[in-house]
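Please supply some protein, with fold tokens.
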Amino acid sequence: MNRPIVVITGASSGFGLLASAALAKEGYQVIATMRNIRNCDALLNAAREAKAEASIDIVPLDITDETSIKEAADYVIERYGSVDLLINNAGVAVGGFVEEIPSAEWERQFSTNVLGLIAVTRAFLPHMRKQRKGTIINMSSISGQIGFPGLAPYAASKHAVEGFSEALRLEMLPHNVYVCMIEPGSYKTDIWKKSRGQISLRADSPYAEQMQALNEQVDRIIEQAPSPDEVIERILQIARHPAPKLRYPVGRNMRTTLFLKHLLPWSWLEKLILRQLRLRS
């Protein structure tokens, strides 16, 4: 098969779904993985609209299950022989305030966003190293650079992804394998609705006022956030690039926000963030 081989995790919705359809339309053979393949209807509809259904192979993969990861990796290598692009997109966003988030939710956050991402990457690394080519895209976030209140588990997991990606890139560059990250800001995807439904908050919570302010901010984000087209176009650009760089911040005011983080004293930045979120400092 002459077409480049792409493996994408979390392809049933959001960035994963859109990237799968877009890459298939561009001529890539896409192995679109998801925990439950019964949730593939939206992806198949998008692939049909792109006239690229024949270029998508839907494979079950639970990134928190080592057996599932091995079976998926073995299938891909046996059938397609190689992997040119791995996109670690699957993830969850646990919300709430640190004091009130149960340990099980912290574990779920890290087992998916960090340990699952690492396990999937490790499953395909030997093949990329031996073939001396390949690109790994880890979907990070603005939360991988700045931790926002009410999203500590998510921010911590994305900070971990950032450190892992930096180290792995340096390990793999001598083998001509490029590791990079896309750091999206806020876009219209399902993650906001899902995270809103999973927030931990006690009935008598001392953080009730702060949570109300954050929920109002999230409502504004959902209303004003642009479509994810810009993120998908960036994925396509990285896929085509022979030597992509490490970080790709994407989104409204992302570069300005990151510039201010590195320029301003943290005490100034935290006042700006709290003011924007309409929280008292």
Summary: The mean pLDDT is 91. The CA atoms of residues 32 and 58 lie 5 Å apart.
